[in-house]
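Hi F.,

I've been meaning to write this up properly since the lab meeting, where we talked about keeping a consistent format for the predictions we share between groups. The idea is simple: the sequence comes first, exactly as it goes in, then the structure tokens exactly as they come out, then a line or two of notes. No screenshots and no reformatting. I'm using this chain as the first example so we have something concrete to point to.
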Amino acid sequence: MITENQTTGSKMPLALALLPIILLVALLRTNVYFFGDYSSSGSNQIALLISALIAGGIGMYRGVSWSALRDAISSNISQATEAIIILLLIGALTGSWLLAGIIPAFMHYGLLLLEPTIFLFAACIICAVLSIATGSSWGTVGTVGVALIGIGTAMGISKGWVAGAIISGAYFGDKLSPLSDTTNLAPAVSGTDLITHIKYMTITTVPSILITLVVFLVVGLTGGAVTENIEFASGFGEAIKSKFNINLGLFFAPIAVLIMIARKVPAAAALFIGVLLGTLTAIIFQPQAIREIAGEELSYAAASYYSSITSMAIDTHFVTGNELADELLGAKGMAGMMNTIWLIICAMVFGAVLQASSILKRITDSLISGVNSVLGLVGSTVGTCLAFNILASDQYIAIVVPGKMYADAYKEHGLAPENLSRTLEDAGTVTSVLIPWNTCGNAQSGILGVATLAYAPYCIFNWVSPIMSLFVAGFGYKLKRLEN
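Output, unedited:
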């Protein structure tokens, strides 16, 4: 058998390295054909595991030990632990905030204050401001984003467009916020400082969001996103008020969560406190909703406990007689996040096996070879970040690994490290949410209840950002050079 040391002396054929990737793409396309929007409910997980098996077989054939593959899988899954905990807490938060009337209150006031023609434009700005303040795209999508999906749907606007506006704004804020983990990670691996990175990133990020806002404004004014008859939403507001006591006191919990995140309280802790505040809000303001979930035979204390646990962990649903309200006034709690977590675990297994088997390195080495211009270098970086988001299924890997790979190449071309850090964010951070099996893509899909492929075409900012990075490099605009 070939030993592990011998593998370093023979270069893996590119065709062999691409085999698991080709198989995965073929299986994913087949799953979409047979299962449609439900392809991430099991079939894609199986596709990832089958492809990981093939990749692992290639690695073991070339001398990689099973223990090395196992340790890589264990390490990769452990890196997703925080994301899994946050997903569970977002599920609990959504359920408890629905029971408390917080999400219905957002919908109620949103319908009163927002006009359908400017809704996409406004939703993008709201999410951008919130994400800058908190540094969390996931937190933004999991709180205000959930309410905005309901408001937009009630206005007859396509869920794909609404989700695209929410995600565009959330990822713009995530890129520029000094509180964001990826905004701190990119300059750290590139060799520059945070403030320089943020300032330099505005060169591509600000034009990208301006283009995005123009698109959303034009689409809204022309009615290009309206897919439902507005009459479908008639009676929606009355249906909400028939089930919940709507008042401004319901906003205490979300305001408290935003303040905690802005003050750098760990996201998991802030979300969990938000869950508890949500249940307390429900007990104080929504006795009717609590009785509807728990039944009339229990005491109010027992009913409060039962309905709170049910909303956080299992399922909450209210029947109003209004078709749209019945569709939106439902949440599956932590249980609703399990499918997403299942996919994340399978994706991390696949990414770990590709790394441990040196398949990713072989593919990325082929991307670097022959690069001899600034545009080619930036283009190769963008392509590599996208490839890691697709193959490794994690945006952190899509930032860290290309950052290490290209650091010396940027220096050799006389480019300051902030050129690299900006490109990593323009391509690595924002494209992760466009991939159905990526941790970000699957998480946002699960939170918003919109399939990744259904919202991906409308995430204008996430498409424009890497293109803007290439545009700036092609024209040589604001490319900072090394002094020496």
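Notes:
The chain has two domains: 14-80+338-475, 82-336.
Residues 82-336 form one domain.

If this format works for you, I'll send the rest the same way.

G.
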